[in-house]
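Why does residue order matter? Because the sequence determines the fold. Keep that principle in mind as you read this record.
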Amino acid sequence: MVEETKLFVLKLLKLFLFLFLIGCSNSHLELLIEHPSQSRELLLNKKNSVNTAKLFFYNKKDFIPLELIIDTGSPFTMVTEPIDFKTSGTKNMQFHSVNRSYQKEFRIIYADILDDQKRLISINQEVSATNLPKEILYDGILGNDILSKQNLFLEVPDKISFIKILNEKKIEKEFQKIPFIFNGEHIFVKMNSKQLQGYFILDTGAGVSCLNNEKFLNGNYIEYGKIKFHSFDPDEEETKLYLFDNLCIEKSYCKKNIEFISMDLKELSNKKDKIILLGVLGQNWMKHYSILLNFEKQVLYIKER
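Structure:
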């Protein structure tokens, strides 16, 4: 029981990264896939740099339409209450924001999940349900437990697509191939710049990037401004913004003056795979690139937009 509670505490800390840091053109689709009809464009709405997907959750009786935020920074999928599904258990989970800690109860449900054309994506999927803050604006969060079931093509904040079958020969002519690590929860990408050499989480749910407190304290960063946010607590929080001089992946893909915040990320480091986490890559870095994620081979394809 203690181990289960600890695991959910870690998952909620990971989920907070999203709560805090709250197109793929036809030519691209022709390039990337063997059969265009096998692509699934997930984006239905774009508001405040948020990408959402319209899905159906089936409870063995009704198809319930939901619109979820696409968040590669969240290890699991969650929906807001009320939702008409049988309860399979509950968990009291604690998580941490930049300034304080929270505890909240989650209800565990199981659902068959389908896309907007009612094509099956996942059978008997475990999902967490709770009362999400009204600032999220949507019905919940679509996490990596579902997103990793197919390939993902990202051109945030414009579009995100599921792609079933890849044409790798064509892709490799236009994109650079870079390995990543997916541990079943997060996408770890190795960054390589003068100040920062180590792993960052790729997070479509984060509006701005993030640097681990420990690494931040060893650097010399100038305050750029402040950002306000809500997490599970209804009270508004505020923290400082800074700028990376240069943020690079494989030395070839570098962007200057990327905004970031600093917070404690040590619980997200993956000791089993010897991953020491330096930070989070948010949409303010990703928006400069077209990125294709092949989860099966753990390969990322990237090119300038």
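Residues 65 and 304 are 35 Å apart (CA to CA).
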